[in-house]
Every structure is written in C-alpha cells, then in structure tokens.
Design brief:
disordered C terminus, two-stranded parallel ribbon, Rossmann fold, alpha/beta
Length: 289
C-alpha cells in the first residue's frame, strides 16, 4: 500500500510539473505574440512615441535615396524639419525641394562623403550648430554591386576603410547593432531612445538584384519602423521582415545553410587580393578589433 501511495504521489507531482510547464510555455507564446501585435500592428494607430516631441529638427544621413530618403519624408510628414546629409548636392537639393513642397517643413542640406573618414565630422558639426535636434537616423551605407569574397577586391585597402567609415559589409552592421543596444541601456535613464533597425531587403539602389517578392517599399518600411520607436529597441523594422526573419532566416533557411556548410568543402581563398594589410598568400593571419 505504501509503495502504491508513493507512486501515486510521484505521478501527481509529475502531472503538476507538466501542467505548470505547459502553462508557462503558453504564457510566453502569448506574451511574444502580444508584443509582436503591439509593435507591428497596433502601432499603426497607437504609435510608440511622438517623434516630433523630442525636438523640431531631425538629421538623416544617406538621405537622398532608399530608406534614408523615405525616413526623411516620413519625419517631415510627422512635423519635423529635416537636415539631409549625403554626398550628391544635386540629389540633396532635389529631396529638400520635395520635402518643402509636399510637407511644408524646413530643410537644411549638408554635402558629405562618409568614405572620406572622420575629418568631415567637423564640417557637419559646424553646420548643425544652433539647431535643436531631437532625432538622428544614422542610415548612410554602401554595398558591392554583387556578392563576393572579402579579399577578392581590386582595391582592398580602400574597401576596408570604407567598410569602417560607411557601414559596409555585415560585420560593421553587427557592430552597429551591439553599439546601439549598449548606448540604449546606458542612456535610457536620461530619456534617450536608441533603436537598432536591421532590415532585410527594401526597394532601393542597393537591392536592385533582389526579386520584388522579397522587398518592401522604402516608404512603407520607414512608416512602420518609426511607428515602433519607443516600443522596441531592436527590430527588423516592419512586419514583413519580422515574418521573414522568424519563418526563414532564423529557422528553415538557417538550418539549411548549416547543413549545406557542413557538407561542403571549405572554399579556397582568393589568390589575387591586392592589399598591403594581408600576406601575399591570401590567408588572413591576424585580424582583430
């Protein structure tokens, strides 16, 4: 009798543990779905913050095309004046004229080529003096015309410098992500919001090689991304990209890539890399940060 009673008690304990585990997992799923719904759906009506309340001016880098241009227009639509920073004065004047005509907001243009290094920041700082700036969209970036090996570049020295100065290549974007998260934690108590936006493919000059099915318009992306400010500190920017990340890049595609990588022989490094920073045999013997 004592043995049967002991087994019965053990079965009850395990049943309770099982029920609590199911309830805990169900609660986590509900909370995740609720957060996603709040960030990407309800934010169309109830936005995270009023971006115009942080100051009358916004600064957007890489503001003459793609995501940057869309952000500039969306910020102006929400009542902010916009400082446009890019390397083409002709395109800057064109976008500025569009914003002033369509949204009746003031603009200021600053011509800057971010591949030139840190020297240009003094010029930018001087041009921003006297403006009450509440929003910064650090969007400037560039990419290669086609995917390729890191060392397989005709001017690798310049490419490495551009990678650091102008957000080129995935590894610098990963740094931006962690840096943004760290800044957000450090300055949260001061009322400063830092959001890391990590989009997939958006219609722009940098994604002409991607099929339209996988892309979202820059205008829609900017609207949805700005809606989420104050609701999440790290986001793919829009609901479409969130679904792609969860269903594809973070799941099935990721598993496929790992399987493919495990079954493939390692690729030989390019033998004609032209850089004084790497040995002539093409092998990277030291790379630190």
């Amino acid at each position: 009798m004592a043995s049967n009673s002991s087994l019965f008690s053990l079965e009850q304990v395990l049943n309770v543990i099982g029920v609590l585990t199911v309830l805990w997992l169900s609660l986590k799923i509900v909370l995740v779905i609720g957060q996603v719904f709040r960030v990407h759906v309800l934010s169309e009506k109830w936005k995270g913050v009023d971006v115009a309340s942080y100051g009358p001016w916004a600064v957007v880098t890489g503001a003459t095309a793609g995501i940057g241009k869309a952000y500039a227009h969306e910020l102006a639509r929400r009542g902010l004046n916009v400082v446009l920073i890019s390397r083409s004065m002709e395109k800057l004047k064109q976008v500025a004229a569009e914003i002033e005509e369509q949204h009746s907001q003031s603009t200021k243009v600053i011509q800057a080529d971010f591949t030139q290094g840190s020297e240009l920041y003094e010029t930018i700082r001087a041009n921003l003096q006297g403006l009450e700036i509440g929003i910064l969209v650090n969007n400037v970036g560039q990419t290669k015309n086609r995917p390729g090996y890191f060392l397989d570049d005709d001017n690798l020295d310049k490419y490495i410098d551009d990678m650091v100065n102008c957000n080129t290549l995935s590894i610098t974007k990963v740094f931006d992500d962690f840096f943004s998260q760290a800044l957000g934690i450090e300055y949260r108590s001061k009322g400063i919001i830092v959001q890391s936006v990590m989009p997939l493919f958006v219609e722009s000059n940098l994604s002409t090689h991607v099929k339209r099915f996988w892309k979202i318009s820059a205008k829609t992306f900017a609207r949805q991304a700005l809606n989420s400010v104050g609701l999440t500190s790290r986001t793919p920017g829009c609901f479409s990209h969130y679904v792609q990340v969860q269903a594809g890049c973070g799941g099935i595609f990721s598993s496929f890539r790992k399987l493919q990588s495990a079954s493939s022989a390692p690729a030989s490094p390019p033998s004609h890399a032209k850089s004084s920073r790497f040995p002539p045999d093409g092998h990277v013997k030291e790379w630190g940060c």
